[in-house]
Design a protein that fits this description.
Elements: H1 6-15, E1 20-23, E2 37-40, E3 47-51, E4 56-60, H2 65-73, E5 77-78, H3 87-90, H4 98-103, H5 111-114, H6 117-120, E6 121-127, E7 133-137, H7 149-153, E8 162-169, E9 171-172, E10 176-184, H8 187-198, E11 204-209, E12 214-221, H9 223-237, E13 241-245, H10 246-258, E14 268-274, H11 279-285, E15 290-293, E16 298-303, H12 309-313, E17 318-324, H13 338-351
Parallel strand pairs: 1-2
Antiparallel strand pairs: 3-4, 4-8, 5-9, 6-7, 6-8, 10-12, 10-13, 11-12, 14-16, 14-17, 15-16
Length: 363
């Protein structure tokens, strides 16, 4: 099923007599497809509003992300949160969509400064599990009254409603960017270095440790400012730093964003989100290649097939998500604490009382 309008989407959901599998571009299929009729949102496409002066964009949930990025590029603007493209890592085809991006709360290295996808999302329209059309937020910031469903829908993976439209705030594209690349560091030294860099006044907006152990620090802005800030940052941190600029810097961060180091390599891929201060101890428990992003707050691990990384790590103050790993019964998402699970179940019962939207995906 591929509705061409929100009204048609509403009717399809209302008439559903069994489970529905919600799919945008099909590029973020982290879990095995469950039972149910396939409902694709690709027909709900198109940019309905773009106001460069107001840094605001509204697009249908099925709009390809590439189409939106091309439109923003004409005005030298961008989505602030640097959404991850999972196709290389997961071996999926198709084109990422705006709705899929929101449903996954897809966010890249810049998240450490500008926030996640949900922090740039200012309005949504969606169809809940009863077929009701729900609107929340708007086309300007500070336009939310009542319960903030905008934030709730981001990262819900289609279990609370099927998105039909999304509104975003935007940012200008900086004039230049430069990346400082250091020598190999231990996880402890890398986190300390990244924390120090993010705490300087030199406006580092991305900090990662790649699979080779090198710390990478990105600076963006006007040419003269970046020239000063990259030099001052290197001096403040000490040690030897290689400077990568322009397209080479952009390509480096795209690889970090999309975890391409683990693409086309055998094994399961896990994503662990924790406090940066906890990261070194957790990495020490992972006897496998790792990549660290968000100043140490995000760990990507490539482990042997079927590895239960949660059991290996033990209790953590964070969550471990099985991003890639076919043929295993391990749940994709981290088990929620009982109080949180109760709230989540209550929300699903409210928005999808019949349990037809991606049932079983998130518990």
């Amino acid at each position: 099923m591929r509705p061409a309008s929100e009204a048609e989407l509403s009717e399809i959901v209302r008439a559903a007599s069994g489970p529905l599998r919600i799919r945008g571009g099909g590029t973020r299929s982290m879990a095995a497809a469950g039972a149910g009729a396939l409902l694709e949102t690709g027909g709900l496409a198109g940019i309905s509003l773009y106001e460069p002066g107001a840094l605001t964009l509204v697009a249908g949930a099925g709009t390809p992300l590439a189409e939106v990025e091309a439109a923003l590029a004409t005005e030298n603007q961008r989505l602030p949160f640097e959404p991850m493209d999972m196709r290389a890592l997961l071996g999926t085809k198709g084109a990422p969509t705006m709705g899929g991006m929101v449903a996954a709360n897809a966010s890249g290295p810049r998240r450490v400064i500008v926030g996640a996808c949900r922090d740039s999302l200012i309005g949504v329209r969606f169809v809940d599990g009863t077929g009701r059309v729900v609107k929340n937020g708007g086309r300007v910031m500070k336009n939310v009254t009542g319960y903030d469903l905008v934030k709730l829908m981001a990262g819900s993976w289609g279990t609370l409603g099927v998105l039909s439209e999304c509104s975003f705030k935007l940012l200008p594209v900086p004039e230049v960017q430069a990346t400082l690349v250091g020598a190999e560091m231990t996880p402890e030294d890398a986190v300390a270095c990244m924390s120090e860099a993010l705490g300087t006044p030199f406006e580092v907006n991305a900090a990662a440790r790649d699979t080779g152990g090198r710390v990478c620090l990105r600076i963006e802005g006007f040419s003269e400012q970046v020239a000063y800030r990259k030099t001052a940052l290197a001096e403040a941190l000490g040690g030897e730093w290689q400077v990568v600029e322009g397209d080479a810097s952009a390509a480096l961060w795209q690889d970090i964003r999309d975890v391409t180091a683990f693409a086309n390599r055998p094994g399961d891929v896990w994503r662990v989100s924790v406090r940066p201060s906890d990261a070194p101890a957790l990495v020490a428990k992972i006897d496998a290649p790792v990549q660290m992003d968000w100043g140490g707050g995000l760990i990507w691990a490539l482990v042997p097939d079927g590895t239960d990384l949660r059991a290996q790590l033990g209790p953590i103050k964070g969550h471990a998500t099985r991003v890639r790993g076919a043929g295993t019964d391990l749940p994709v998402f981290h088990p929620e604490p009982a109080p949180v699970a109760a709230i989540a179940q209550g929300l699903r019962a409210k928005f999808d009382p019949r349990g037809v939207l991606n049932p079983g995906l998130m518990g």
